Amino acid sequence: MYILGLSAFAHESSCSLIKDGEIRVVLEEERFNREKHTSKFPINAIEQCLSIEGITISEIDKITFFWRPMKEVTGNIIHVIRYLPESLNLLRTHSGSDEWSFLKRFWSKQNIGRKIKNHFGLNKTPVINYIEHPLSHAGSAFFVSPFHDAAILTIDGRGESTTTMLAVGRANKIEKIKEIKVPHSLGHLYAAVTDHLGFRPFFDEWKVMGMAAYGKNTYINDFKDIVFFKEDGGFQLNLKYFKFHTHSRDVWLSDSFAERYGPKRRHDDPYNQRHYDLAFALQSLVEKAGVILANHLHHATGLKNLCMNGGVVLNCLMNKKIIEKTPFENFFFQPIASDAGTSLGSALYYYHHVLNNNSRDQFKSASLGCEFNNDQIEQIMNEKKLKYVKSNNIAKDAAQYIADGKIVGWFQGKMEAGPRALGHRSITVNPMDPDMKKRLNDRVKKREFFRPFAPSVLEERVDEYFVMPKGQLSPFMILVGEVREDKKNVIPAVTHADGTARVHTVNRDINPLYWELIREFEKITGVPVILNTSFNENEPIVRTPDEALNCFLRTDFDVLSIGDYIVLKKDNRV
User: Fold this and answer.
1) Average pLDDT, the chain
2) Among the four 186, 403, 542, 545, which has the fewest Cβ within 10 Å?
3) What is the DSSP string of 201-264?
4) Crossing angle (nearest 10°) for helices 316-325 and 273-301
5) Cα 498 to chain center, whole Å?
6) Residue 320 in this model has a pLDDT that exceeds 60
7) How confident is residue 104, by pLDDT bands cut at 50, 70 and 90?
């Protein structure tokens, strides 16, 4: 049985394909239309999904969608009535990552079947099975976890009306324990302060997380007034500081917030210590909230396994605290934690919970997308009239360039799903060079100085360089570890200001070529760690050889390792 899962009309539109419960393909539409966080219908991703699997749309048995539009309507009516008259502003505001009015989003979601019918020329309109948003998040974590039973925690901006869900998964069923509703949202709290700090809410939260390492505890006590924690494990925002619940994204915070914490930073204003201190206080508050929620969930279930998902779960510092400060023993953090993963989750939830199927497919790799062979790569390089050489040992040759201080693009195998490059669409450099972070930012990434770069480390050597929370591995770069004191001067380019690193542990069996690259680097330098960041320049991660080559040529890369070929910038100046 083939099930095609879809997400669209919010942000991170995607499609996923499963066959008899096995994950076959996960693709994000932004990789095709090149619009970061796109909300557009994922028609390109759907076509590529079918092409990769070698099937047609008529062979799809079921189609699922990550949202129940009618449930949102009910929740929105209740919300508007509760916060009258100011909530009338919501009727003229937009939501999602594009200029979507509520009516436009609702109509688009209700007419997905018709859109697919028209595009593919079907004789009849396919049935769309709508799955609740938090259950889609929960399904994408629990049903691919290694656990038969587990507590499940989803933390999001919002779904139809739910922002946080506590649940339990047993075998092929997920049952809710508790839901926290809008406007009380940790995701929207983080988005609101992100906006106040001059960044783009929903998409730049990781910048604020990076800023937090440079902050002091100036506002820690003051922020206790922003969120109230309840005895039942829930929380409430102090709405006197917020306006998003009555004005949507047009006005995130009230005047009371600016009066207490200072004016909003314009995006081109310089940073000062107040900004860093606000980021520190926000990050600390969200970590505290995550721990409280997880501890309550453990008390309610008594289980030793925890699955987590939702956009806030990309906050790897919060994940670290949850591991350290809760009784749970085993953890699974879904790496495609944004809405991009809900297309997969809706399909998995329908297959297991609705259809009552038991077969499970454990999530071991996020490399679930497109790949290109040497012939395809060579054809494109020839079309661009590039000079290149074929390597007899691509890992060894690329490792030597990295050891020599070169900026090396690494384009190999299947594209990853989710926000992290995990050794298939990566930029790799030497972490031992203290100037490498600045050089990489100046020449390629053009990022703020306070945003850290991540280390990829051989799985079997991780404990020599990092102290991981409860000894957890981090194959999806979604956990933070402490850099060991005697290694901070060894790998300064991946050591953040607070002494942490967002660690990526590389398994030899799951990602053999990338493992070999790091091993060859170790043979040269004695260090089994390289700096790994996504292959892009303020754009979606590259998908095709053409996009990789274009990025390489327009930026100040030194070397591109693509398939079995080495391309040098000095030979191909443009």
Assistant:
1) 95
2) 403
3) TTTSHHHHHHHGGG--GGGTTGGGGTEEE-TTS-EEE-GGGB-HHHHGGG--B-HHHHHHH-PP
4) 40
5) 22
6) yes
7) confident
The pair of structure tokens assigned to 61 is 């048995």
Helix (H) / strand (E) element for 78: namely helix 69-82
149 neighbors 167 (Cβ within 8 angstroms)? no
Q: Which CATH number fits domain 374-571: 3.40.50.150, 3.90.870.20, 1.25.40.10, 3.20.20.70?
A: 3.90.870.20
DSSP structure class, residue 445:
I
Per-residue model confidence (pLDDT) at position 134: 98
Nearest alpha carbon to residue 228 among 240, 236, 217: 236
Query: What pLDDT is recorded for position 521?
Result: 98
**Strand, helix or coil at 59?**
helix
Query: What is the three-class DSSP state of 22?
Result: strand
Structure tokens, 555? 């930026």
Q: In sequence order, what are the residues at sequence separation of 6 or more whose Cβ sits closer than 8 angstroms to the Cβ of residue 34? A: 539, 540
3-class secondary structure per residue, 405-433: CCCEEEECCCCECCCCCCCCEEEEECCCC
Residue with tokens 């991981």: 468
Domain topology for 180-333: Nucleotidyltransferase; domain 5 (3.30.420)
Q: Classify domain 2-142+337-354 at the CATH topology level.
A: Nucleotidyltransferase; domain 5 (3.30.420)
- Mean of the pLDDT values across residues 455-476? 97
pTM of the model: 0.96
Give the SS3 label for residue 440.
helix
Contact of 256 with 240, CB cutoff 8 Å: yes
**Token match 């938090």: residue?**
134
